[in-house]
Amino acid sequence: MVARDSTDPDIKYLNSKDTQNYLVDIKENNFSLKGAVLHGEYLFVLTCENPPKLLCDKPTHHSYLANGKKVLAAGTLIFDRGALLKLTNNSGHYQPTDSEMLPAIKALYMASGKMLEIYESFSSSPPRAYLVKELINSANFAEAIFQSGTSETDPDEQRYGRELKKDLVEFYANIVSYPLFFQSKPASQNHS
What domain of life (predicted)? Predict the structure, then answer.
């Protein structure tokens, strides 16, 4: 898939105000969007912002949600009445590898109250499913890949956040390693 320039008039991206319509709210391990409990399958991105934002929608493209910018994670989320049960890296635009998804898997596992059960990897063909509980204590994804006999792909055309400066990579890795960044701040702490 060819990356499109955000200045292309045929491509529409979200402005910062519209982004709020796709911002996932997580309270007491329950995921909602615009006040409605999430149910079914949604595309998602985890943005490269401080703090990162978890954005999702059903009928759109990952690059639309992220304004065509680099992301920390992308794929699909599957919910059952607000409970996050499954996560994938299925994104034709960003194509994140399993290793790149691991910090987001861990963060979403904690944010879901440890309800997230399955990570489905589209880094191999055919896709492979992994039990999230088996990935949580892994330092990297290589252990799971070794056990399954599959390998990760790393095509040059990927648009994932690989070109971020080293200090930004470390900064975002620290944020994502602390899963409470997903939680809403109490009203007394919101100073936007």
Answer: Bacteria
Residues in the chain: 192
Mean pLDDT of 143-157: 49
Residue 4 has pLDDT above 50, yes or no: no
Q: Which two tokens stand for residue 165?
A: 């400066």
Helix (H, G, I), strand (E, B) or coil at 148: helix
With contact defined as beta carbons under 8 Å apart, do 68 and 28 qualify?
no
Task: Give 108-111's long-range contacts (Cβ < 8 A, gap of 24+).
Answer: 108/77, 108/84, 108/179, 108/182, 109/136, 109/179, 110/179, 110/180, 111/26, 111/29, 111/84, 111/179, 111/180, 111/182, 111/183
> 108: which residues sit within 8 A by CB, 6+ positions away?
77, 84, 87, 116, 179, 182
* Other C-beta atoms lying within 10 Å of the C-beta of residue 158: 17
Yes or no: say if 149 and 142 are a contact pair by the CB < 8 Å rule.
Answer: no
H/E stretch holding 99 reads: helix 98-111
Q: Output the average pLDDT for the chain.
A: 77
Q: What is the pLDDT of residues 79-105, one digit of tens each?
A: 999 999 999 999 888 888 998 999 999
